[in-house]
Amino acid sequence: MTYISFNIGCHYYLTLVLDVYSRMITGWSLSANMTTEDTVVPAFKMAVAVLDNQERKKLIFHSDRGSQYGSDKMEQLHKHYSTTPSMGGKAWENAHAESINGILKNEYINFENMNISLKQAQKLVEEAIYLYNFERPHGSLKNRKPQEFLNFVQRLATEQRPVFKINY
Question: Which ranges carry the Integrase catalytic domain (predicted)?
Answer without folding.
Answer: 1-154
